[in-house]
Amino acid sequence: IPSFSPEKFAYIRNPNPSTYKSFQKGIDQLLAEGAVQALSQRNDDGCGPLILAAVGQLQFEVVQARLENEYGVESVLEPMGYTMARWADGGWDAVDKADKDGKLFGIMIVQDRWKRPVLLFRNDWKAASVAAEEKCVELLPWSRPPSFDE
């Protein structure tokens, strides 16, 4: 199943700590079904904020409705101001080099579920600028299938 390039991003959180297990079970199930994609901060050990990535707003609404109706938990979405995700095919070394050179200013650097670098952009212009200036960071609008050794 291909992973389409999301255009909507939001942090999701559980406002009620007493329903943590049900919330986590629901999120895990919805992610396994592919309702949305999950992104996280680099080197997140699973305790950091979860970022949901979707092609459209309706996917977020479906996730929230299913969490409430099927798992009995509330959720809060905090929209983010990014409109495009690009996977950095050069890996973390290429991303680190571009970041050190100051080329990724204003870009959020996160990781997908296979811990591969994903860059979140606010507009097409910035993505095109990075693609043109940083040849070591090939930007892909989709994720490649993971290799078996990842």
Residue fraction in strands = 15-25%
The largest sheet, given as strand count, sense and whether it forms a barrel, is: 8 strands, antiparallel
**Radius of gyration from the CA trace?**
16 Å
Low-confidence residue ranges: none
Walk me through the structure.
The protein has 150 residues and is of the alpha+beta class. It is built from 4 helices and 8 strands. The protein has an 8-stranded antiparallel sheet. Helix 1 packs across helix 2 (57-71). It is elongated. The mean pLDDT is 92.
Provide keyphrases for this structure.
elongated, 8 strands, 33% helix, 150 residues, 4 helices, eight-stranded antiparallel sheet, alpha+beta, single chain
In brief:
By secondary structure, the chain is of the alpha+beta class.
List the helices and strands and how they pair.
Blueprint: E1 8-13, H1 20-33, E2 37-41, E3 50-54, H2 57-71, E4 76-79, E5 84-88, H3 91-100, E6 108-111, E7 117-121, H4 124-133, E8 139-140
Antiparallel strand pairs: 1-3, 1-4, 2-3, 2-6, 5-7, 5-8, 6-7
Helix pairs in contact: 1-2
